[in-house]
Design goal:
With 161 residues, the chain is of the alpha+beta class. The chain has helices at residues 5-16, 22-29, 33-45, 58-61, 78-89, 115-127, and strands at residues 65-73, 94-99, 106-112, 132-139. The protein has a four-stranded antiparallel beta sheet, covered by helices on one side.
Length: 161
């Protein structure tokens, strides 16, 4: 599907304000409401727009201690990766996990109740058969940037095309 400047502008606007009204969106991209809304529906049907959601501030609900962890597995085979990834899916404290290349196997974000709770979790994994060779822990001291992709910088303004 080829996207033109109107489609791209719609995606940019909806990425930071999914609740914008049809008329405000049409005004922002300088189209009338019907053609603008037809473009939105076309982007939805094509799977480019997957859905709409609210960004929830987890700190407003429960204070968590974010920890980034690098994991190296003992063995590098499909069974070892599958076993570790099953553990990741079964652990609610893990909020992000990616497999990476170059020295470590996984990089993940753990959000525990405390540093002590995080360490107890790691200790459980080390005595289990999940196969962790070594891990490196990085306690987050400050969030410097936390945004969704496509979010404009504070100095940028969304302007009509």
């Amino acid at each position: 599907m080829k996207l033109d400047r109107y489609d791209l502008k719609i995606l940019e606007i909806l990425s930071h304000d999914g609740r914008i009204t049809k008329s405000k969106l049409a005004e922002a991209i300088n189209l009338s409401v019907s053609p603008c809304w037809e473009r939105v529906r076309r982007l939805e049907r094509a799977g480019i727009i997957e859905g709409y959601s609210a960004r929830i501030n987890p700190d407003a609900l429960v204070k968590r201690t974010p920890v980034w962890v690098q994991i190296e597995l003992t063995q590098h085979n499909a069974a070892s990766f599958a076993r570790f990834e099953a553990l990741v899916h079964d652990t609610p404290e893990i909020t992000e996990c990616v497999a990476v290349g170059g020295g470590v196997d996984y990089l993940m974000k753990v959000e525990a109740e405390s540093v002590d709770a995080y360490q107890r979790l790691i200790d459980e994994w080390l005595v289990s058969d999940v196969g962790i060779e070594r891990y490196y822990t990085y306690i987050v001291t400050k969030a410097v940037k936390r945004e969704q992709p496509g979010t404009p910088r504070p100095s940028e303004k969304t302007t009509a095309l």
